Amino acid sequence: MNSYVEQVIAYVEEKYAEQKEFVQTVREVLTSIAPVIDAHPEYVKADLLKRMVEPERLFRFRVVWTDDEGNVQTNVGYRCQFNGAIGPYKGGLRFKNNVNESVMKFLGFEQTFKNSLTGLPIGGAKGGSDFDPAGKSDEEIMRFCQSFMTALYRYIGPDIDVPAGDIGVGGREIGFLYGQYRRLKGDFENGVLTGKGLSYGGSLIRPEATGYGAIYYLDQVLKHEKDVLVGKRIAVSGYGNVAWGIMKKAAQMGAKVIYMSGSRGYIRDEEGIAGDEKLDFILKLRESNSKDLKSYADRFGCEYVEGKTFWGAKDVDIYMPSATQNEVGLEEAKKIAASGAKYYLEVSNMPTTNEALAYLKNQKQMIIAPSKAVNAGGVGVSALEMSQNAERLSWTAEEVDMRLKEMMKGIYDKSVEAAERYGLGYDLIAGANIAGFEKVAQAMYEQGVF
Ligand code: 2IT
Fold first, then answer.
1. Per-residue pLDDT for 286 more than 90?
2. What fold characterizes domain 209-365?
3. What is the pTM assigned to this prediction?
4. Residue with CA nearest ligand 1 atom 4
5. How many Cα atoms are found within 13 Å in the side-chain-facing hemisphere of 423?
6. Residues involved in catalysis
7. Is any atom of ligand 1 closer than 6 Å to the C-beta of 194?
8. Ligand 1 centroid to 193 CA: how many Å?
């Protein structure tokens, strides 16, 4: 491999040794883009990679709020403005107890290349808190969000940095966050956040966009294999907003999601998790404090398996991990490969460990696609929401959906083309990394050394 690339990976491994997730994504991305560095000695001279692995800015702040019993609670908030070379910083906020600097940096780094891939002018960022919304009342969530935004508002703006949702942050949280931003600024700058409610500038199709986009991307992959979506059996981990979008679009296009999972067990629904009743049930379950997937099995009369995961089930054509990072390790990867499933599409950010991904890539019969391409429709539609806000108008659902579909085809085509151009054959992972990297690298290079 290119010695400069090796040197930067080694530097990150040593300097940020304790930031496991961050080291993992740096290793994955930089290994993929080594051929681009071979072809661009000027990037080495400008020490571009060492600059690129350092966030432009990383805020860490105290978030204090009062719970319903009157106890004072303290959490840590973050905003990592990773790379602004091609547009205002853009990326979600994650509220989850395992959020730390490593998680923020890995997500911000991934977001930089993902956002570039969308073809829209958005830089990469991520933020969040170690606050865990599980079991909190609406009032507690509101007070937390207000305190979080009070710390953050002076560092964001429609042309500066535009946060959105991620795990633990949905429409309700974005509403509270925007309300507090507006209160503090005294301005109706709704382009500062995306994933808003429709009544104050949200975009149609944004809640569905990540899942719909994943299925549009899958459709391109299947076409390449001269295969079809109709009749396919899909296993989705998680049951959040992204899984919900996948279920909805898969059903519309004639495929079936058979499996979904929570942290304690999984559902196997032979009839397919589809139709308004089931999908609304999942949305409500997500919002509720119980988060008990078994209630789905009780209600719709299907199988619930407690304390196990479904990886390796033999009645699946397509695996789509959609829950969180590192949900598929080497053991799970071996089971998936042995199951005979041909397609593995990452949907959640970095769901596969480095060693599991290497193992899956070695399975010649399998097609593997990376999350930064497959899930890019979410942030892509966020960028469309920003355009609508800037123009003070709103597009129809058909218009947004059409643009999303085109965007996903564009991302797929760009990835295929980039890998082929570097002599790597049909490699969706390397292709996405290269295509995403090229635009950011060129923008940084042209803007000079800083
Ligand atoms: O991981 C992601 O791309 C997101 N959570 C969405 C980010 C956004 O700005 O819509």
1. no
2. Rossmann fold (3.40.50)
3. 0.98
4. 92
5. 5
6. 126
7. yes
8. 11
